[in-house]
Design brief:
Blueprint: H1 14-23, E1 26-30, H2 39-50, E2 53-57, E3 65-66, E4 69-70, E5 84-87, H3 94-103, E6 108-111, H4 118-126, E7 130-132, H5 137-142
């Protein structure tokens, strides 16, 4: 299990995160929202604009489209292979999503900031998935470009 880090309780090597973000093409976002004020909407927007094939997952029958993308009610309903399942749900729902990610043959299970469950991680890892928890792919995608400017005055 990863060791604790300052900005997250899980510490992942930058190369591990970069390789995941480089290798995945299709990302199913469980908990995607059509509400532009929600964090999940902003993350979906940035990842989509960056070139990922985003698949919004939202069980609300009134939500059929987000940013022009067809919304699916569950991972099982998705009509194409899924590389990564990104989870914007409560931590107690992470285990069930891990089971679904395994069932659909995803390669990566990614829990958004605040979304983690060591049992779910073990289940997914034992099934051969790479796992990231308590991190945001949008942040990790741009982290290599962040250069601290220690010479700036506060």
């Amino acid at each position: 299990m990863p060791e604790a880090a300052i900005d997250s309780q899980y510490d992942y090597a930058p190369e591990y995160l970069a390789e995941i973000l480089r290798s995945v093409k299709t990302i199913a976002m469980v908990g995607a929202s059509a509400d532009k004020t929600k964090f999940s909407y902003g993350v979906l927007r940035v990842l989509h604009e960056t070139g990922y094939d985003m698949i919004p997952i939202n069980p609300n029958p009134a939500v059929t489209e987000i940013r022009g993308l067809k919304v699916f009610a569950s991972l099982a309903e998705v009509d194409r292979p899924i590389d990564m399942v990104q989870v914007f749900r409560r931590p107690e729902q992470f285990y069930g999503v891990a089971e679904e990610a395994i069932a659909v043959g995803a390669k990566v299970l990614w829990g958004q900031i605040g979304v983690f469950d060591d049992r779910a991680a073990k289940l997914a890892e034992d099934a051969g998935l790479k796992v990231v928890m308590d991190r945001c792919p949008k942040i990790e995608l741009f982290r290599p470009f962040w250069k601290p400017r220690l010479d700036l005055k506060i």
